[in-house]
Request: fold
Amino acid sequence: MTLRYTQSNAADKKFAKIDQRGRHDPTHKTNQLELYKRKTKVSLKVFRQIFNNDFNIGFHMPKKDKCTLCESRKQESAKFTEVEECAYQKHLKDKEENAVHATIERFVNKRIIWAPSEWSTIISNARINPKPFQVVMLKHSDFLSWKSQNILPTGITKTLDGSIFQFNQVKIALFEKGKDEIQVQYSYSDSADILVLSLTSGTAKGKTSRKLKNASNKLEAIYPQPLKISHLKYRDLMQLCEKKNYSSSIC
Reply:
């Protein structure tokens, strides 16, 4: 009877299955563990030496979890153009921003936000390693109005070399920060002529030119005072406080 039970309930074809009736030792520990304990244990140093030198084992991230663009750049040895490098840096920045958003969303998913003032603490605690997120609190005075600087020329008829500017033929336009000039091309070809337009010279006619020259560098705040909630919103919040849906510390 014992031999028949052992043969029919063999675990891994080596040891008999443990009787599950009554109190017993953990079933996930077979007799093989006891046999291993009888031998002399080696130190961690010896284990690492054997594992790192005698075995050719590598651990890799699954391909489906890798970024195809980043992996393709690792395989290429050719130099990249400035445009390709800028696009790749933007790609890395987008990946980092998406990772930050995903971390915050996972942390906030199972939490209740009782008041907007709690968001800064919640976001800061969403990550511990390598360090918590740094949250910058903005006030109403930090939002500036750029309408005084948003002056686009409407009367440019000639380029700096005196040729007639054909707006309908423009294929490429290049704007650079801090410069009052625009570079345009009438073709997508790399050998196409580059024409330069000035935003402040006499080529911009009428009021637009004067506004560009006299544009104020001082930016004003959009909101002179903190924004107030509507009367209906205030009434609903007070009703929630009266019904004790919020804690007394918030109300």
Notes: Strands lie at 10-11, 15-16, 144-145, 172-175, 181-185, 195-198, 220-221. The chain has eight helices and seven strands. The chain has three domains: 2-54, 80-137, 146-221.
